Amino acid sequence: MDEGTGIVQMAPGFGEDDQHACEAVGIPVICPVDDRARFTGEVGDLAGLQVFDANATILQRLRAAGPW
Fold it and tell me: Which of 4, 22, 31, 38 is exposed most, by the fewest CB atoms within 10 A?
């Protein structure tokens, strides 16, 4: 309680424990990556990019969005 941000990341499409926890409260499983490790259409204009190749674009967009 005295450390950390309190933010928890859940990835039900990428971890069994996360999947069970999310299913228990009605959070759907979304896996926007295909079997070739490329983003699917669910991520808009990044669709088709290999996930690691998209990192530079994602970081650029996050930085442009400014601090939270």
Answer: 4
